[in-house]
Write a structure and sequence with these properties.
- The complex is a heterodimer of chains A (about 120) and B (about 375).
- Chain A has a domain of about 70 residues.
- Chain A is elongated.
- In chain A, helix 1 packs antiparallel against helix 2.
- Chain A has about 120 residues and is an all-alpha fold.
- Chain A contains 3 helices and no strands.
- By secondary structure, chain B is mostly helical.
- Chain B has a domain of about 220 residues.
- In chain B, about 70% of the residues lie in helices and about 0% in strands.
- Chain B is built from 10 helices and 2 strands; from the N terminus they run H-H-H-E-E-H-H-H-H-H-H-H.
- A two-stranded antiparallel sheet of chain B has the order 1-2.
- Chain B is elongated, with a radius of gyration of 32 Å.
- The chains are: A mainly alpha (about 120), B mainly alpha (about 375).
- Chains A and B meet through helix 1, helix 2 and helix 3 of A and helix 5, helix 6 and helix 7 of B.
Amino acid sequence: MAQAPAIDSIRTSRDTALSALNDAFNTIGREVARTTKLGPYLDRLTDRYDALGDEREAILTAATDAALALPEVVAAAAILADLASQMNTTAAELPKATDLLIKSATVLSLGQQFVDTIATAQKA
Amino acid sequence: MTVSARFDVSHGSQRRLVLVGALLVSGWLASCSPYSFSDDVQALSTKMTSIDASSQDTAQRIVAEKHLYNRLKWIRDKPILAATAGCDPNAPAKDICDLMIDTHMNPPAYPMPTPQPVAPRTKVCEPTPIPVPTPTKETVGALPPLDRAALPKSLDTYFAALAAITKAQDRADLDSAAASASAAVGGLAQSGATASGVAAAGGPLAGNLATASSNAALWLLGQELDYRRLQQLRIATQGACEPVHTLAAAMTILLEEQREVRLQGMSKLLGLKLQAVGRARQDPHVTDAAYGTMLDEAQAAADAYQAIKVVNPSKLMQALIDTHDQLVVAVRNNDGEFTQLVMSLTALGKNTNDLANAAATSAPAPSTAAKSP
């Protein structure tokens, strides 16, 4: 099963795209925090700040969607689901098996003690 | 030979032979038991947890006292405030996101850290002589892409199944039943001896023999139970080894997205809170109490930002992979390292809780007056 390299490649591409936006986003964010006077300047700053944020989110979402669509990721999830089902089935069977075996062992032991008793009685 | 068949004999020599064989088989099976927990290690772990909690509590008090000091001073002086350089999403965790007096200088931007590869291929997942009947990529067929909720769910379901297959309750039930059955059989043997007219000396002998047989049978059954459980664990963990690596890598990218989006939202919120504080300092009608409340809201936003920033999804998922790899090796080798495994799972649980706690951390809602005069 091919695995992590494809995902790591997506992460690297994503971060390259994000790094181009980060400086602008942080610088404008600080300016928004400092600007206490309402007016066109603050409005323009806020609009640009929101637009940069939306662009960052779009890059992040696209990268995750690409990773979730990778065939090896889909196959891995299906395999885990199958294994979990197998384990749950076995786990559910174990207590039942215990009860059954305890009952049969007790019956066997009762038969055994009867034989023992007779054998001991014959020796006496 | 089934367990029942081993005891389906009545001649003494055959019975001794079977019992010896049973003990040999028991010894072999006993080495597979997943119940080798150590009380000493658990006690040490508990004490260390206590020390760790105490240290964290002290650190939190120091920070709280510093914040209280700044709050009183800033209410008195009303300086222009800004966020520290630690409020950059790429700042290292040690650079705390906090409030500070504005120096009117933009802090240097932190470069984007290079993503560390998640889940490098290791020898742990290499095929072993144990057959692993699991579906393959081909047998899975063309399934649709996972959605965001299905990815963590698939890992959660698997780890829940691991817990179900390793839980000790049914073994504890078996041991309890064994004790009861042995006592009952011993009592019946005693009664049988009395009823058949055997001399008093013969009774206890018969009872002891019957009890011993019963104990051996039930003890063997317990080992068989553990053996079955361990075999299922071997099959499952070996089959899940690579899928867990792959899904953990995919989870990393999903958690990183959530972290970044959350930090971005908190950054915007913190900016508006600071803006509101900046306007309030220029307004002579704002009381000290009202100004203090605004400071508290800005501080809460900075604290929430810091709580999310310190979460490292890549390390978290690597911890998940490492823990599962340890499980694969421990189960494969059956080397009695289950105590270590339990500690690893505890650490994993703590890491996961850290993420959940950070995600649950919420600052007050954005002030609607942020842009009002």
